[in-house]
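Bench notes, afternoon.
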Amino acid sequence: MAKFTVATPAGASFSVSGGGYAYEMEALSAIGAEIVEIPSGSEEEFAAAAREADALYAKGRPITKKIIDGLARCRVISLGSVGVDSVAVDAATARGIPVTNCPDTFIEEVADHTLTLILASFRRLLVQDRLVRDGRWAEGRPMLLQLPRLWGRTLGLISFGHVARAVAARAKPFGLHILAYDPYVEELVMTAEGVEPVSLSELLERSDFVSNHLPAMASVHRLVREEHFRMMKKEAIYVSAGRGPTTDEAALIKALDEGWIAGAALDVLEEEPPGGNNPLLKMDNVILTAHVASASSRFDPARRRRVGQEIALVLSGRWPMSCVNPSVLGKSDLKRWQPVSMGRGPNS
C-alpha cells in the first residue's frame, strides 16, 4: 500500500494525454507515493474524490476554493506550468497549503519565441512570404524600404521577470535599446541588466516594440487597454507571449483596425483557441502562434519531473523549491533545506 496518494484529474495533460507518469514518479516512488487519476466530473464530484489525497497535481481543470476547502489531508498543490491562475491560491493560503509552479523551466524557449515574434513582425515576414508565393516578387523590396533599420530601435518590456530579462539579453546584440516597467522589481536589478527603468506611460510613448510579460493575476487582468494603445507610436508593434487576459483584446483590435499601432505578434489570446469570427485572424499586420512559446522537446520531461520533485519535497517534510504563496512555509512544520528565493513565483 502506498504511503502517500497524489490525486490528479484523469486524462488531463499540457501535451498528450495518456502518456503515463514516469517522469513524476522518478522522485515520488522514492517516498512511497502513488499518483491516482480521478474523474474530473463536476466540482462536487472532484472535491469528493480528492478529499483524502495527500497532494494534488493540478492540471486540466480549475482547482476552486470549494475543492480546496474540501481537502482533508492535502499538503501541497503542484502545477507543471508557470501560471497559477487555474488554482484558487488565496484559498490554499488560508488553509496553509503551499502551491508550487515551474517558474524557471521554460524561460529560454519563451524568450526565443518572443524575439522571433519581434523580428518576424518588424520585417513583415509573413507578408513577404505571401508576396513571393503570389508572384508579387517586385513588391517586397519597396515595402521594406519604408521601414527604419532595427538597430537603434527601442524595446519596452512590461514586467521584468525571468522571461523579460532573457528577452533583453537576446535583444541587445540586435542593437535595441531596452526599457522596462515593473513596480515590483528594484531599479538596480534593471540597470544591472543594462535596461532603463521607466514608468508605464513613458515606456508606451517611447517604444517601437512593446512586449507584454505580465503574469496571469487578477490585479493585471486587461491591464493593457485602450488608453495604453493610444499612447503608443503609430509605427509600434505590440508583442505578447505571456498571458492573453492581461491584454484587452477588443482594444487591441480597435488599435490595429484604426491604425493607432502598426501591428501585433501574439502567442496568447483571451480566448484559446480563438473563435472563427475573431478579427485578428484576418489581419495582415498580425502574426499569431498557438500558445506554443514554451514548447520544445525538453518541455514535458522538465515540467513533469519538477512536479514530482516539488510534491516529494513537501511530503517528505521539506520546503518546495518554488512556492507562489511563501507565507505558508514559515507557519508550517516543513524544514527549510536550502536557500530559496521567495521572489520566485508567477511574476518571476
